[in-house]
Amino acid sequence: MKKFIFILSLFVFSKVDSQNTDSLTLRKIYDFYLTESKCYKNLEQLCTTIGGRLSGSPQAEKAVYWAKKAMYDAGADTVYLQPCMVTHWVRGAKETCVLKSSQIKSSQDLNIIALGGSVATPSIGLTSKIIEVKSFDELEKLGENNIKGKIVFYNVFFNEKNISTGQSYGETVKYRYSGASKAAKYGALATVVRSMSSAKNDSPHTGAMGYDSTVSKLKIPSFALSFTAADVLSEALKKDESLTLTLKCYCQSLPEVLSYNVIGEVKGTEKPNEYIITGGHLDSWDNGQGAHDDGAGVVQSIDVLGLFKKTGIKPKHSVRAIAFMNEENGLGGAKAYAKETEEKKWKHIAAIETDAGGFTPRGFNIDTLTGLYKLALKWKPLFSPYFIENIDKDGGGADIGPLEKFGVPCIGYRPDGQRYFDIHHTADDTFDKVNKRELELGAAAIGSLIYLIDKYK
Amino acid sequence: MKKFIFILSLFVFSKVDSQNTDSLTLRKIYDFYLTESKCYKNLEQLCTTIGGRLSGSPQAEKAVYWAKKAMYDAGADTVYLQPCMVTHWVRGAKETCVLKSSQIKSSQDLNIIALGGSVATPSIGLTSKIIEVKSFDELEKLGENNIKGKIVFYNVFFNEKNISTGQSYGETVKYRYSGASKAAKYGALATVVRSMSSAKNDSPHTGAMGYDSTVSKLKIPSFALSFTAADVLSEALKKDESLTLTLKCYCQSLPEVLSYNVIGEVKGTEKPNEYIITGGHLDSWDNGQGAHDDGAGVVQSIDVLGLFKKTGIKPKHSVRAIAFMNEENGLGGAKAYAKETEEKKWKHIAAIETDAGGFTPRGFNIDTLTGLYKLALKWKPLFSPYFIENIDKDGGGADIGPLEKFGVPCIGYRPDGQRYFDIHHTADDTFDKVNKRELELGAAAIGSLIYLIDKYK
Lengths: 457, 457
What we know:
The structure is a homodimer.
Chain A (H helix, E strand, L loop, with lengths): L1 H35 L2 H12 L7 H17 L3 E13 L5 E5 L7 E2 L2 E3 L11 E8 L2 H12 L3 E4 L10 H20 L5 E5 L27 E4 L1 H13 L4 E5 L3 E15 L4 E11 L9 H20 L6 E8 L7 H13 L2 E7 L7 E6 L5 H6 L2 H4 L6 E4 L16 E6 L4 H4 L12 H21 L1
Helix pairs in contact in A: 1-12, 2-7, 3-7, 7-12
């Protein structure tokens, strides 16, 4: 019995001791991030000296070499440019939208933006009547008789009642992504969609759209109206169903071009050929600076290299920071990383994606694969002093998603999401919208999680 | 045994049923706030049509009548103006601070603001050498020999390592509040203090200071430098200890004036003479618009009246929304409410204060008095779908604090605090810094807590 108690007490003490060690290490990690982190300075550089960096653009190319340097500066043992073929869509000159109505004597300009992937209008513009719909069901019910020759206006609101703004986005983004082909099927000439946001302002939100040739062979131009412009149009239609919009955009889809994911690595001391990765995407839309989406994720990921190089904490496994290319409109980078993973049989212990903005951290969404979710639940008390309370099931993101088929547990970093869709894909996604402490606390949360995964997996 | 199981199952079912009812009611409450709340519109009005509203000012008086109308508009059964005597300090013309050094050929203006309660400098200004200190200990060690005839510069940084920014504020605010008398004791002519913030910008943060005649009979002018200006001064002192500052301010402390707390009430259906109260403060500093501090708390409190009037949810106890006056520099309103509570033997079931900004909700800090804290812990699963995870001990705030001596359990609403001290008491505390959803979710959290307290206490 005595021996049993002795062993039990050893076990209990060693468990308490291990929790204490982890607690002290997390404090050390947070101290590093809150006083020595370069992520805010890095983000300022990326946003203000390079700015928006759509795949295939000169800015995206600059960003690749910027990321490489930033990773070496952070202390990476190696930085690798991983080739990938990326979408090369260009916006051309600024789009215009003019509303004309017999009720409104003078014409009115509405704030609009072409969606990524859209074809151009004829150079003289495209003028037509409008048909407003609230859903795909309604579109189908209206059918060719009512739609042919018109511009379809998807006037679908963000559901403000959802607590998760991501859920509201998920419910409405289909009108942006798939709306054009579905409307073209009934002979529509173009589509305009209400911006995916609950922020009642005049900034239109761009984002990817795709043509589905199984739905319609016709490719029609596709736009997003600002929240305010969508209100104006909807109100005007109530007074005058026969009003017209004149739409102009100058977009072009060019052949794919070579670009790169940027992968910085700190070698593991015990298992250098096993990887824990964290990444954000380096490309962004062209209209803003790509600050929250996703400069924040890139600089938070780069910071992990600094953590392991500057605090004396040595990872057993190799740790990679990845600046993925082409998340916004093609996932060329994600595909290239998954392909090389398969070819080289890279073993990943875990993959973290940070692509939800540089806001105050709330937690992580973690795959139930390989028991990582259950393990992470035990770490809740370690995170609690840092106000991180949400360890939930299901994880990942677009860039690491293709790794799931290899059994890699994927994790989505989850910051507070209330402000994200106010600026998402708009000209307002700029550096000044990011708070230094919120960004750093997010980086610290990710660094802490990697430390724990490295130690216990 | 069967009977026992029958009774047990009744108990279990009734508990589950009650949780379901509460869960549905909370959803209804959140739906109200996210779609029908007037708090954001109210805040816009208060901030942009009235603006900064220091106690005793014409703006503060306007705000009283604005709050009265807003409470009636929200559906209050009665609105009561509760008289209180308030501090009447006026800033006068804008302060100036000029740094002159033999090393720096030209003089340099530094961004500065007089602290609330400060006396004026002589009208020609006050010019003197500087002595920089990092703590009161250092001040005392330097003593009269080193301090007499100089301006004391409290150059104490916010501790960036604290996760709670409120903790950093608590650690440094003593230099702002008590620094003048402690320096005057050793013959200092004035004090300048580094602004209480970790935001590295050029906006000085004002706030209350007080003279302590038991420390020194002399009242010397007292200022806050912006973060940037404090850096400039500290760097300049390293090169030239004999540099001078010329300080000018024109403040005056006038006799106390009559003002009001504004109390809106929805009558309880069963216990109309027992109260649940929620309040913020209507006064603000004069340099900004008092948006986060504490217009947000006022409009969130007013919204509770709307909740009970417009959703059909009837409170058993009377519910009061209170717009307190004079929180920033005297607590005249808090004292008046406590006095009338004592005189009229008002019975309070609970008191909530919302004075930490209109940011995303994180939770509540709750007094352990009367078992409310333990009861609230049981409500955690109800709040969890709304990402409210922190139900912690200890509560209250400056305005409801005086009620604790009557045994009233006090509760502090706790939003995310990372951005608060970036703008606190500065010209940047303006309406545009408040996010609509974050403000509304805070109001919904408070409304939900009041519903639960009303039902279970």
